[in-house]
Amino acid sequence: MRCGGNAPGLAEAATRYWRLRLDFEDAVSFAQRLEILEGSYHPVVNQAEDRMPMVRRWREALVKQLLTPAPDMRSVTWKQAVLASRQFQNTGVKSERIERAIADDVEFLKAHPTRRRDLEQ
Fold it and tell me: 0.90 exceeded by the pTM?
């Protein structure tokens, strides 16, 4: 069963948010350790307490995006790259489940190709 609406876009947005949030917190923490002015613009980052909950949320968002039906082949290619890089390995989801989701995406997209608007006018 395929998801309707904007589920793929929402899943991608959540994954991107948590990845960027982790990168931002790393940058703030680095600035604070070096005691540069930019680090003082933000609350103190407690890596021991704050990082793992964010990593957990990123992993949850990543798995949700991997298992949400892909709207196009670009999304399938992204899923294949994540699978190959094993970014999901600490999520508790087996590679076989992701492979099955990708195969389902490919099968669906072959049977229901996306319409392309003719750009030549």
Answer: no
